[in-house]
Design brief:
2 domains; 4-stranded antiparallel beta sheet; 39% helix; ATP binding; ABC_transporter-like_ATP-bd; P-loop_NTPase; BCA_ABC_TP_C
Amino acid sequence: MGEDTPVLAVDGVSLRFGGVRALTDVSFAVRPGEIFSIIGPNGAGKTSMVNCISGRYRPTEGRIHFDGQNITRLGPNRRAGLGIGRTFQNLALFGHMSVLDNIMVGRHHLLKAGFLRGMLYWLGGAQTEELAHRREVEEIIDFLEIQPVRKAMAGTLPYGLRKRVELARAVALKPKLILLDEPMAGMNLEEKEDMARFITDLNAEWGMTVLMIEHDMGVVMDISHRVMVLDFGRKIAEGEPEEVMAHPEVRRAYLGEDAVQAEPVEA
């Protein structure tokens, strides 16, 4: 895939639940190696779009291509196997499992040892593979600075650390594209700064393409290469952060029409 070829291409996607339209004819593309953010007011369709990309929902209309392949009809597991990882708006960790084991779960798509090799574990086949996977997981733990809690039960951790563990589990898949659904929600300022740093480092140092939903506009403006805005399930703007935030429809969606009209006009 060339540098100009999108890693993700969404073409005319619509999504309906009965008579309710969650998305209407949305198209956009995510380039390799960029941080692409989707913003919009509550109920704009942001999570619905991520669910369509990850395979949790199937679009009513339109197509989704990943890495040049039409994945519109593939299930979530097949998409994960192709290299799409994700985190969730509401934490989806296994609270009774350790941090290390939660992250190892993220690598199950990469395990190649079959049933017979598992039965012959003591001969070294699956054992060697598991050790290699554990080394990579330890690298992720070091990168995200969660070494002190690696053996702790995930359910006992503070909220900010649990969000970081969920990011680690998504990273463990070694995704070409990682979908982050409100990664900073519920965090304090210090936790947000840490998470923003980890996301930019994953992008810059590990070459990971990021599609992110986030309400914190300061974070979006600081770390995004491009931004798309949804409002009532329709795309109203797309471009670089400064350009998008100056768009009249975006300002109207966030500030209200009266607030935009009331702004003084420069002489």
